[in-house]
Amino acid sequence: MTSGASILAVWLHLPVLHHTIEKSFKDMADEPVHVPGVPPILASDMPVSVHDRESETYQGRIRNYSQMTEADGIIVNTFEGLEPRAVVALKDGRCVPDRRMPPVYCIGPLIAGIDKQKESQGRHECLAWLDSQPKRSVVYLCFGSAGAFSPEQIKEIAVGLESSGHRFLWVVCSRDDAKNIFKPRSEPDLNSLLPDGFLTRTKEQGMVVKSWAPQIEVLNHESIRGFVSHCGWNSALEAMLAGVPMICWPLYAEQAINKVLLVEELKVGMAMEGYDKELVHAEEVEAKVRYLMESEGGRTVRERMGAFREKAVKALVQGGSLDEELRSFVKDIRDARKR
């Protein structure tokens, strides 16, 4: 099963791009890359694994994505109401011209349930803190299981949050080599990572959690108003089903493409400027938090996310699009066995 339809469209179309674009993506900077059904993607936002067309990784990806069309079908964790242009482009075969396009089954949005998370982890202390906060007053920051920052970046985030004046729940991860997502990380020492006196000054404003929080429960808590996220697909779906708008800060893999969908296509989030540079400065963190939490533009983004939440919930109800796609998938499997 793949993540979103937009990502699937990019992967399937990559062999076409390989033959129509002579340069490596790393040499194209901010030139747009065009994929059927997907908003234009800056070359710099393509996953690092395909930046260099001469690399072994890139060549392996081209082979793998070319072979995807040989599948009997492809399951995607999305629903057509979320990514209609990408789903139609896939089903029409426009992403793989001159090749057979397998059936695409959109059986999303699939996320873990809150009850399952409660059973496996118990109630986290951050939830009690959220209970004490006013409704829709907290911005939540979390960057996934591999989303860690350098000590310098953590200090910039801290200064920006404090200056914003808004309540925050922040899951802090750190590693010495923040660019190596596969390098094991140790338990963060908050006193050494955060600015002097930060925890004392902000004890009434925010809560800092080490390494992990029960994200589904947090996003569905009535005190949460916004979500600063790395734009992993699971996190994006979790935010959508909770109706929480996003500040998009992609870090690796396909997250920058997800950012394009969320910001440019769906307009349920806004990009943290400088995410692709060495450092996002405190002023940008403060500005984006204030915009989402205070401004008319932020209100519009929240309303759009609320509308997509309704679509997502409708897809999940009995007889919704998820049921229909699953029935189609099972029928095709049964028919294939009879042949």
What can you tell me about this protein's structure?
This protein is α/β, with parallel strands linked by helices and 339 residues long. It folds into 2 domains: 5-106, Rossmann fold, CATH 3.40.50.2000; 114-307, Rossmann fold. Helices cover 45% and strands 13% of the residues. The chain has 14 helices and 10 strands. It has helices spanning 5-20, 56-67, 84-91, 114-121, 125-131, 151-164, 190-193, 198-201, 215-219, 233-242, 255-265, 282-294, 296-316, 321-338; strands spanning 32-35, 38-42, 74-76, 104-106, 138-142, 167-172, 206-210, 224-229, 246-248, 269-271. The strands form 3 sheets. The chain has a 6-stranded parallel β-sheet, sandwiched between helices. The protein has a two-stranded antiparallel sheet with strand order 1-2. α10 links the parallel β8 (224-229) and β9 (246-248). α6 (151-164) packs across α12. It is globular and about 65 Å long. The two termini are 24 Å apart. 43% of the residues are buried.
Helix and strand run: HEEHEHEHHEHEHHEHEHEHEHHH
CATH architecture classification of the largest domain: 3-Layer(aba) Sandwich
Poorly predicted regions are none
Shape: globular
Task: Find the CATH superfamily of the largest domain.
Answer: Glycogen Phosphorylase B
Strand adjacency order, main sheet: 7-6-5-8-9-10
Q: How many extended strands? A: 10
Strand content: 5-15%
Helix content: 40-55%
In short:
The chain is α/β, with parallel strands linked by helices.
Topology:
Layout: H1 5-20, E1 32-35, E2 38-42, H2 56-67, E3 74-76, H3 84-91, E4 104-106, H4 114-121, H5 125-131, E5 138-142, H6 151-164, E6 167-172, H7 190-193, H8 198-201, E7 206-210, H9 215-219, E8 224-229, H10 233-242, E9 246-248, H11 255-265, E10 269-271, H12 282-294, H13 296-316, H14 321-338
Parallel strand pairs: 3-4, 5-6, 5-8, 6-7, 8-9, 9-10
Antiparallel strand pairs: 1-2
Pfam families: UDPGT (PF00201)
GO molecular function: UDP-glucosyltransferase activity
Signal peptide: 1-20
